[in-house]
Amino acid sequence: MEGNSSKRTAAPKRSKSTNEPLLNRESATALYMQIAERLRAEIDAGTFATDSKLPAESELTQRFDVSRVTVRQAIAQLLADGYVVSKQGKGTFVSRNKFVHDLKPMRGFYDALVAQGVEPKTKLLEFGPVTTPEPLRQAFGEDGGESDCFRLKRLYLVDGEPIALVVSYLPPQASGLTWEQVNRNPIYVLLENLLAMPVAKAQIRIRACSAGTSVGRALGLSPRAALLVMDRESFDGNGMLLERTSFHIRPENYEFTLSVQGPLPVGSSIKNVNGAASHDHAE
């Protein structure tokens, strides 16, 4: 009969345990990417709330009928995309919205967080005199003297989770500061209000590095975990160094932004791999 000869589009096969569409094993998209895309969509839809824990590897393995290796690749992709964070010994959790640090206005790390409606908490881990590192001796105006500079280490937390470890070096004049003063005030407040050392300018460098043992322990990360590091040097109006600080930041929830103004200078031609010059001057 004519009705029996018509073709029907086959419905996608579904998992017997969850009744959801199975992965397309004939697709050019790798299985781990399909899993990552599905989990990403569920996070965007609110199926997994911010700070909630993702299902264990064994559950995802059973749900998608794949190996643990494939599940781990999918989770690694979500980590790279900033959708989840890994907490050592606890599991994988949905990450919160990123903090966006605008580098154009000169302000401290604490104030940059507050400007985004965040209420960071801090924990002072160390404050006291240390032998001045050689690169800082002349910068702090010691001229080969024996004065110690002062080092402080401070942990920044948001919603109880560490997001940054800050290590600062202050000049010998910081000897008049107390633990309580340092515990209650950010670096720029210490300099401006308590030491009467106004900050006129700052130089900032941003790099990536692995956490290492001590920083990783403070942030709850493995020593090999990748970090964003913002190195800052602040100077007075005469060019004297007032502080040097390194901010070791968990990268999954943090990004930097900088707006620049034209006009755009047109540079020289660039060379392609084959050595030929390209006429596309600006990218």
Automatic annotation (TrEMBL):
Gene3D superfamilies: Chorismate lyase-like, Winged helix-like DNA-binding domain superfamily/Winged helix DNA-binding domain
InterPro entries: Bact_HTH_transcr_reg, Chorismate_lyase_/UTRA_dom_sf, Tscrpt_reg_HTH_GntR, UTRA, WH-like_DNA-bd_sf, WH_DNA-bd_sf
SUPFAM superfamilies cross-referenced by the UniProt entry: Chorismate lyase-like, Winged helix' DNA-binding domain
Any one GO BP annotation for this protein: negative regulation of DNA-templated transcription
GO molecular function: DNA binding; DNA-binding transcription factor activity
Alphabetic keyword roster: DNA-binding, Transcription, Transcription regulation
CDD domains noted in UniProt: WHTH_GntR (cd07377)
A UniProt-annotated Pfam family: GntR
Region (Disordered): 1-23
Annotated HTH gntR-type domain residues: 29-97
Record protein name field: GntR family transcriptional regulator
Species: Caballeronia ptereochthonis
